[in-house]
Give the backbone structure.
Amino acid sequence: MTKVNQNFLKLPGNYLFSEVARRISVYSAAHPEAKIIKLSIGDVTRPLAPAVIEAMHQAVTEMGTFEGFHGYGPEQGYDFLRAAIAQHDYAARGVDMKPEEIFVSDGAKSDCGNIGDIFGTDNVVAVCDPVYPVYVDTNAMAGRAGEYQAELGRWSKLVYMPCVEENGFTPQPPKEKVDIIYLCFPNNPTGAVATKEQLKVWVDYANANGAVILYDSAYEAFITEEDVPHTIYEVEGARTCAIEFRSYSKTAGFTGNRCAYTVVPMELERDGAKLNALWNRRQCTKFNGVPYVVQRGAAAIYTPEGKEQTREAIAYYQNNAKVIRDGLTAAGLTCFGGVNAPYIWLKTPNGMGSWEFFDLLLDQANVATTPGAGFGPSGEGYIRLTAFGDAEATRQAVERIKTSL
Ligand code: PLP
């Protein structure tokens, strides 16, 4: 009889987002007049930049001609996009990255999950707590996480690194030896960033212990402060220990377009193998590339007009983040994040639980949020607010929260 992957049966249900949706729908059914504003939304809402649209239109026209038709493209991405990434995202920040070290893909979510294919199942994995759930669940599916301990909300074999107010939501390397380390800055959900000095500690740890850092930089475009590194490769030594994930989803509104990339430096070797070669082998076997039209759209982001237009959309969300952060801080609440990230990590008042505060805001302010506890045990006592909504609705939501408190 066919055996299923037993690890899937250990996964808890997608408790967080389904429970958020359930509570909103129960509340709406009981209060049909309530106009709920969702500060829980994790998706962008601004349309694509005109430069992107134009490039995609042109690419579609090309595809309708014999000369311009593109069938299967290179699994690693077209040269024009890999070269643009190397130039604009790396050389422009003083980092030398070769196009061969850049793998274009259909999403940072897929890459963060798929990267596990190139690592053995007996590696010890460290994750931040709270954390983007994909890192945890994909390791659980691969059998690296052990057993789910429902009463603790954690997996037995994963090493959880608490990201709390005391450490500025940026953890230090753990005491136990770990092999694979997931870091995400700017962070989802806390909105925290890491300085070069903080990342250097991790890079030194990984190089000294033969560990690999999986660095998720999906929110890089939201960095506003000068001294915050935009890529882990700004840190000396990172080329021999880090893989970096980037995405056009939040950078350029590509959540529905699907385009991202992963960087695996040539120098990165473990167990006698080059990880670049392993990832290349993995992608060539299981992935057939991102559509030509989408990659043309992504490349347009690097033109002067494309840069300007995407900067405007980011500025729109950054302003929402400021409205939320400033408004709620003025109302006496404690907010983190929202400066270099589209997420605001709000401490619940009076020691209230995450879900309790979620219910209160839904009921008293008709504002939907995301309870921090859903991102990991250390998220208890916080809620996450996002800046991806409409500016006027965001302003109203903040006013309603202030009034309700
Ligand atoms: N990484 C983080 C930390 C995210 O929050 C998200 C999306 O919410 C992703 C990756 C997914 O990016 P993509 O749309 O490229 O799959």
The radius of gyration is 21 Å. The mean pLDDT is 96. The CA atoms of residues 284 and 340 lie 35 Å apart. Residues 304-330 form the longest helix (27 residues).
